Amino acid sequence: MPYRSEKVPVAGTGYDGRRKLSGEQRQAVKVLHKEGYSYRKLAGMFHVSKWLIQSIINPPVRSKPRKRPKEYWAEAKRRYRKKKQELYKNGDINNKISKRRPKKSP
To answer: Domains of the chain, with CATH numbers?
Structure first.
């Protein structure tokens, strides 16, 4: 039986582990850096970490991705679903897309 949290959106919250800046924003970071803005100032402007700004301006050299077995991906899905279920149970994410309200005390 699936968890209730399966259908709860995580996108756009602080718990979303995906891409933080769009392609247009990445281009803007590069342009602003050429104009003389520091990494710290750019990170503050875009509300991201300084490391992310550094990796956009000086991308790390990546090796060829390795082919992973089916079992690896099955376990990765289990970990993700478990993490999402814990967030749902703790009240960190909810079924509503609007702003999160604090829990009511009994």
So the answer is: 17-60+69-90 (1.10.10)
Q: What's the CA gap between 105 and 54, in Å, rounded?
A: 43
Residue 94, pLDDT score: 77
Mean per-residue pLDDT, 78-87: 92
Nearest to residue 33, comparing CAs of 58, 8, 1, 70? Answer: 58
Task: Report CA-CA distances (Å) from 26 to 70, 87, 99.
Answer: 33, 30, 27
| pLDDT for position 76 | 94
pLDDT at 12 over 60: yes
Per the listing, tokens 């520091």 go with 38
Q: What is the DSSP letter of 91?
A: T
Measured distance CA(101)–CA(106) in Å, rounded: 15
pTM check: above 0.70: no
CB neighbours (10 Å) of residue 47?
8
